[in-house]
Sequence to fold (358 residues):
Amino acid sequence: MDNSNICEIRAETKLRNGYPNWWCFTHFASARGEGGVKLEKCTKANLVLPTEDEKIYIDLDQYKGGVGIWGSLEAIYDSKREIPEKGVHVHLRQEEGEEKIVDKTFKEVFVKVPSTLFEEQWVKIDEYTACAYTASILFNRKIKVIKCRHCGSPHIDADWFAVHYHKKHFCTFCGRDFIDSEPGISNPVMYLQQLLSEKLSNRTIKNVDRSLKVNQRDFPGGIQIWASNPAIIWTAQRPEEAGIHVHLFADKTGMPSSDDTYGTVEIDGIDLDPEMVRHYMVQKSFSFLGKYIVSLMCPACKMDHFDKGENAFRLHKTHVCEHCGVEFNDNTRFKGVVSNPIAKRLKILDETFKALNV
Fold:
């Protein structure tokens, strides 16, 4: 038996209703049942722990060609129909200009950081932290490190909290609420970036100008599409590329026949706008949006409506057309939605691909 995975459940505080706040300090999850009873196992006890193959340890000094680490969200379009891949994506090059020796997504990444002690120090980036960072950074949120006022652990704001500034936080390590001095969004990744600031000082990002124009019938193995997003760690001398990342599969084999980032993408005559793609990839990852992401058309000018800024992740019933300025209701059965034209365009692409493969 793996004793390190046994739930350690304690109630160090009470809830507002007077029930004990049963919390597991092994898996950092609630162990409270209906009526405030203590559960035998917490809500995360049966989650499969990452295997050693799903972890990687990286000493940046060993990869002169550059290290790239990203939060990996699910593809916005995947006609290859693979199991969605989420986690921490890693590129490693030993020398500048050489091929990548690692191009893989892991559950946990450990990065060696400078230490004044005699022993080595490693900082972990896991799927939860990396994907929360991606959501925050793609919506231009300012992130900092906030520590729990009770246990001192660095706090992680994910999902709704990754894009909404707030003062009250729920610590996922000790299970208690705490109030910060000002509204903010916290992610421990910022601490890692501070420790590695010297190695990251030359980092630049450029929008690529490559164009892609293809038809799905020429790639029966499928097509996968992601928005590129700023890396958590980028140490290469060359600029980091921004655009739409596409995998093209000429057949059903595992490796893509084309793997590149583009500034403009057209598939089956349908334009995929990079900003819409970037918004949609993050919007899809939010549990609070889900079915509420729709494609609206302005009833006055008949143009597609694209919610940006705060409206890109705030459910709302009344919309203002960015083309003609007309205010309109969405006429859905929901109390509020967000509109992104890419949702309709991807649906058309999916229907086309299915028709080609009947």
The CA atoms of residues 76 and 280 lie 7 Å apart. The chain has a mean pLDDT of 93. The two ends are 49 Å apart (CA to CA). The first strand starts at residue 9 and ends at 10.
